[in-house]
Design a protein that fits this description.
Length: about 180
């Protein structure tokens, strides 16, 4: 069976291409797609849209009804109908994630996962991001978490690149060197 991310990729790419050409653009589509992903990610909603007693029209009406107050443009509304007809609506969280990655890449932005041994102030995060942006030649969006097992320092993950300056990593390197 195919991996969900593999199945979701063509849908995300098609929506991305359609969004680039639309008047609303990528930002509005990304926001609405994130809302849809959060909605479909709820267990109650997942169970309801998976109910075999509902036909495709009922599923579409249900999703659109749950989004009252949110105006879905025509191509996003058609996208929901396409996912329902292809029985791929439950892939919405994966599609939204891949769409966001495509949007970030097009805008020259990358997500930076920063794990620190201690809580970091906004100024410290800003300073760290300013130091890292020239290295990656991208604008970074930081996401900071705290992990006290690092003992000290930070670990930064940007895409496939990991910069680990934590005390825990240094101790592991010393242990490996001594064992060799």
């Amino acid at each position: 069976m195919a991996e969900n991310s593999t199945i979701a990729r063509p849908y995300a790419e098609a929506l991305f291409e359609a969004s680039k050409a639309s008047a609303d653009g990528l930002q509005v589509t990304a926001q609405n797609l994130q809302l849809l992903a959060e909605l479909i990610g709820m267990e109650d909603v997942r169970q309801t849209v998976s109910d075999p007693r509902l036909d495709d029209t009922d599923r579409c009406d249900l999703v659109k009804g749950l989004l009252k107050g949110v105006s879905l443009d025509a191509h996003l509304s058609n996208f929901v109908e396409l996912l329902v007809s292809n029985d791929r609506l439950l892939l919405m969280p994966e599609i939204a994630e891949q769409f966001a990655a495509l949007k970030d890449k097009a805008e020259g932005v990358a997500q930076a996962e920063i794990v620190s041994a201690f809580p970091m102030s906004d100024d410290q995060v800003t300073e760290l991001v300013q130091l890292l942006e020239p290295k990656f030649n991208l604008k970074l969006k930081p996401h900071v978490t705290v992990d006290d097992t690092l003992i000290g320092g930070v670990r930064v993950v940007v895409g496939d690149y990991v910069l680990d300056t934590s005390v825990q990593a240094q101790l592991n390197r010393m242990r490996d060197a001594l064992m060799a």
